Amino acid sequence: MSASLSETGSRLSIRMPFDMHHHVRGGETLKIVGEMLAQRFAGAIIMPNTQPPITTAAMVEAYRAEVIAATGPSFQPLMTLYLTDTLDPAQVRLARTHHGLAGIKYYPRGLTTNSDSGVANPASLWTAGSTPFEVLRTLADLDAVLLLHAADGFAADGSELDPYDQETHFVRETLPRIVEAHPALKISVEHLSTKEGAAFMSANQSAHLGCSLTAQHLLLDRRDVHRGGFRPHMSWWPIIQREEDKLALRDLAASGSPFVWLGSDSAPHPIGKKETDCCAGGVMMVHAGIELYAEAFDLMGALDRFEAFAALNGPRFYGVAPSDRTIDLVREDWVVRQTFHITSDEPRMDEIRPFRLGEKVAWKLAA
Length: 367
Ligand SMILES: [Zn+2]
Description:
Elements: E1 4-5, E2 11-15, E3 18-22, H1 27-40, E4 43-46, H2 57-71, E5 76-82, H3 89-98, E6 101-106, H4 131-141, E7 145-148, H5 166-181, E8 186-189, H6 195-204, E9 209-213, H7 215-219, H8 222-226, H9 243-254, E10 260-262, H10 271-274, H11 291-299, H12 306-318, E11 326-335, E12 340-341, E13 351-352, E14 360-365
Parallel strand pairs: 3-4, 4-5, 5-6, 6-7, 7-8, 8-9, 9-10
Antiparallel strand pairs: 1-2, 2-11, 11-14, 12-13
Helix pairs in contact: 1-2, 2-3, 6-9
The structure holds zinc ion.
The site of zinc ion has 5 residues, from loops.
């Protein structure tokens, strides 16, 4: 079985994709997300920045059960632990051996949603003897993946970095040190957003280093985010960058490299957390979680490379078998009409607004 594109290029059949970066949240939000996720994806990397974060094997197991209850049993949740300064290597071993742990997520403290428990000092990742260093040694030993939120908050002299420079700084100063200190460790750079990041990946890709790309970073640049005024429903971490960054990411996605894959970073927030004086980063993407990527690959003229990007490369890196199911997509406009409701007593905390509300998406799941 392999991908097929109809003669007119308006219908596409691919193996069921995997989303290698997804925030399913919990409770009612998880129920809403789970159904849409399982419709489109055979499995997903489940992010651990819940409240509280997932830091023990028992929490991994409990969250996994919650995800399966929301998605149904044919969906494959690939679980992660949250790297803190005190994460216990014994818990990593236990979670990997018995509870389907796929990897560990690194969050620089304070730089994204629920990152207060993240690693305080990135240098601990490459400094022998620190707890995070020992965790990464264990992870390499277990052939599991380190997922990096590739951002630094501060320069070496302690000065605060411009948010548009956080990833570039990480790629230049932090990532090479992690790679060098842990040569046997598989590393995935998450939601790559800059041309410097794309250049690093092209120059250094290997069986031990890859990256995920979001649809929003392939489709948008900062002109879209600021057109007519700042748009909170286009606010993400990492931040949407310049057109030249978007074009570099498109080139990387269209390159056909086996070390580049789909990771939507779908991250629902209630409207009250978006339209407020301190807007949360992240937007629900799962309602069009594969359709938006088909739109981007169509724009790039790269639909023949879409199946590998969406359904094969990520699972291969993580040592997971690709799906033997397929999904069909058609090139057909539809408008995102629906917001999603959850129970809350607080004003505006009971509704989630999806990406492109009231606007068109150019590809659609076939009925
Ligand atoms: Zn994320």
